[in-house]
């Protein structure tokens, strides 16, 4: 569904919304906006011809007492629709809290004493990384805003602190008062002293044999950007950044002849969880809900030409509310460009020796967020043949652990003289609100199998597909199964192609599908239940947007998908939502240090009988320009 009310707040709307919020709270000066974003209208109301007012939702923190508030305001009537104290969790950690708590921890005598025991007396260059509190077993998280923290030494300002982790010291601080609640000292382990740095001056000599590679599009790029809308080839969609979820695509449609056909109403990240598998007491609680605890969109990079993206680039800015409720522009937050994609199709007629070949290309819509030590790239690709692909790019610096030099049985991976990188997972939950040829859809879980030899399969060669219709939320297995070539199709309940087959798209999982390894009694096993299964199907419910609930921060209860599906609601022939958990298990490599070469993981949404035939038959042969061997001017 395409409607301006699904688009993010404008700068003016952020100002209006923040003013309504401040006028409604008892202490406007101490209110901070952990997130402020458009409160999307209920699709069902729009379908019924009701025109809802424009609304904004604010996840608030009162800095004077640390309470969290969830508020929805009406921008048309300038009034408060709903205002609730958050009881089941807390608003995300504020950047203001994150950036200031380290200085307070350094002032604490217990912290200073713990570092002195390790020979560290100058705290100037000590780097303190705050972490969300929820998994620390010794701490009661039900009251107040708290953080945990781990510390590193930088030998000089640009040093990579992660090469020098201070083991055994965990400071717990109150984010509201700045008070250090507790300093745990689990014992001294010698720190790795050798540096490992990714800056060019530490990695000389640099290669001199990389040939120039220039991407030129003399007529400009083949897409147009108008506000949030991108139009390219047969595709159109809206793209924007939201503070929690980051890059969102909305109203994704494919033009078939003169008709715009809907594919996906809204797609994007709904939550992320990164649990670590190391059992030492200063490691076992490490786990980040990067969306719900920190905000993937708030932490999006401003991208620069020639480095993050190559070629004829068009950027889209993002307007995000600052924590004091002012519009803040992240310049060049979304990168849009085209890429060559090799061969689209080819055939040589062996009788006539005639060759036909077409080149594929793709539209790339991407953003990158820095969340502490890690970078996450969110890359969506759109292809000429109707395929959509998502690719996560994981890079940045790994979590590390100093070990005793004789501790050769460490479960992590040795990356330095006295240093391991610890095993962990990255789970990305994607909420894919599919609308394949309209909003009435059904989902099948498809398994390929060999029927038993006997009547109908006398020679044992038969291959068949078993289609399991998702009647309710719990009908399908939802786990990847490569032995059965398992995939999931979302098909229209109303439309068939020319051959009578329901039009559809299939979710094709990539290689990274591990589910959550953490188990009870770990807090993360309860909190990240969504990551125990690869695929979920739920009916559309505008209050169910995030796989671990709206407030996973400081929350130890099971929330989100595993709780919602207990109702076992009907999902066939209705407005449904497909959820995919992309689970990357990262067993560190020496090659991932001191900074990780990009690791890719993703999934595809591929048209299946959506068209009547190959939809790229109208792609013309390429001009033989720009494809040539050295010394030649063309490929002929
Ligand atoms: Ni990793």
TrEMBL record:
Key words of the record: Copper, Manganese, Metal-binding, Oxidoreductase, TPQ
Pfam families the UniProt entry points to: AGAO-like_N2 (PF21994), Cu_amine_oxid (PF01179), Cu_amine_oxidN3 (PF02728)
Protein name: Unannotated protein
Gene Ontology MF annotations: copper ion binding; primary methylamine oxidase activity; quinone binding
Species of the source: freshwater metagenome
Presence of the UniProt keyword Manganese in the record: yes
Subunit structure: Homodimer.
Start and end residues of each Copper amine oxidase catalytic domain: 214-617
Family: Belongs to the copper/topaquinone oxidase family.
Domain AGAO-like N2 intervals: 10-82
GO biological process: amine metabolic process
Cofactor(s) this protein cannot do without: Cu cation; Zn(2+); Mn(2+)
InterPro entries: AGAO-like_N2 (IPR054157), Cu_Am_ox_TPQ-bd (IPR049948), Cu_amine_oxidase (IPR000269), Cu_amine_oxidase_C (IPR015798), Cu_amine_oxidase_C_sf (IPR036460), Cu_amine_oxidase_N-reg (IPR016182), Cu_amine_oxidase_N3 (IPR015802)
Keyword Metal-binding: yes
Residue intervals of the Copper amine oxidase N3-terminal domain: 92-183
């Amino acid at each position: 569904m395409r409607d301006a009310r699904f688009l993010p707040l404008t700068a003016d709307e952020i100002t209006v919304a923040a003013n309504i919020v401040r006028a409604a709270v008892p202490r406007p000066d101490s209110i901070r906006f952990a997130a402020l974003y458009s409160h999307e209208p209920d699709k069902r109301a729009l379908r019924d011809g009701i025109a809802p007012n424009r609304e904004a939702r604010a996840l608030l923190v009162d800095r004077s007492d640390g309470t969290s508030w969830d508020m929805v305001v009406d921008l048309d009537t300038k009034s408060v629709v709903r205002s609730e104290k958050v009881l089941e969790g807390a608003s995300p950690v504020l950047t203001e809290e994150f950036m200031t708590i380290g200085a307070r921890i350094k002032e604490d005598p217990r912290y200073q004493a713990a570092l002195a025991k390790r020979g560290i007396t100058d705290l100037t260059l000590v780097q303190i990384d705050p972490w969300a509190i929820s998994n620390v077993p010794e701490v009661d998280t039900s009251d107040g805003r708290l953080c945990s923290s781990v510390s590193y030494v930088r030998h000089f300002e640009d040093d990579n602190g992660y090469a020098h982790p201070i083991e055994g010291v965990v400071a717990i601080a109150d984010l509201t008062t700045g008070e250090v609640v507790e300093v745990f000292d689990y014992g001294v382990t010698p720190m790795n002293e050798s540096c490992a740095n990714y800056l060019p001056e530490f990695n000389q000599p640099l290669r001199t044999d990389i040939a120039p590679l220039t991407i030129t599009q003399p007529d400009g790029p083949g897409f147009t950007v108008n506000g949030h809308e991108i139009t390219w080839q047969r595709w159109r969609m809206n793209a924007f950044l939201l503070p929690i979820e980051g890059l969102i695509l909305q109203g994704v449609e494919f033009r078939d002849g003169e008709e715009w056909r809907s594919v996906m109403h809204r797609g994007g990240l709904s939550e992320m969880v990164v649990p670590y598998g190391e059992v030492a007491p200063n490691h076992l609680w490490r786990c980040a809900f990067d969306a719900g605890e920190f905000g993937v969109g708030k932490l999006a990079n401003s991208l620069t030409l020639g480095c993050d993206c190559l070629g004829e680039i068009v950027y889209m800015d993002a307007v995000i509310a600052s924590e004091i409720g002012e519009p803040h522009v992240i310049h060049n937050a979304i990168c849009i460009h085209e890429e060559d994609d090799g061969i689209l199709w080819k055939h040589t007629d062996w009788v006539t020796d005639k060759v036909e070949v077409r080149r594929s290309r793709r539209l790339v819509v991407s953003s990158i967020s820095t969340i502490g030590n890690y970078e996450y790239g969110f890359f969506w690709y759109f292809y000429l043949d109707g395929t959509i692909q998502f690719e996560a790019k994981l890079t940045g610096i790994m979590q590390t652990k100093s070990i005793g030099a004789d501790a050769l049985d460490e479960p992590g991976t040795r990356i330095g003289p006295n240093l391991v990188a610890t095993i962990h997972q990255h789970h990305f939950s994607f909420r894919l609100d599919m609308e394949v040829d309209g909003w009435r859809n059904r989902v099948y879980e498809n398994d390929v199998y060999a029927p038993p030899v006997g009547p109908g399969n006398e020679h044992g060669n038969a291959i068949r597909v078993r289609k399991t219709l998702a009647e309710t939320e719990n009908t399908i297995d939802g786990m990847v199964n490569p032995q059965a070539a398992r995939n999931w199709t979302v098909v229209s309940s109303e439309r068939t192609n020319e051959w009578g087959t329901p039009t559809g798209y299939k979710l094709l999982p990539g290689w990274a599908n591990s589910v959550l390894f953490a188990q009870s009694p770990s807090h993360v096993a309860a909190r990240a239940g969504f990551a125990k299964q690869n695929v979920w199907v739920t009916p559309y419910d505008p209050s169910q947007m995030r796989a671990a609930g709206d407030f996973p921060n400081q929350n130890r209860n099971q929330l989100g998908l595993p709780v919602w599906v207990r109702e076992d609601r009907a999902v066939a022939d209705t407005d449904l939502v497909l959820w995919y958990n992309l689970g990357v298990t990262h067993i560190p490599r020496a090659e991932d240090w001191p900074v990780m070469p990009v690791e890719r993981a993703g999934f595809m949404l591929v048209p299946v009988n959506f068209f009547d035939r190959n939809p790229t038959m109208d792609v013309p042969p390429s001009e033989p320009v720009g494809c040539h061997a050295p010394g030649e001017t063309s490929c002929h």
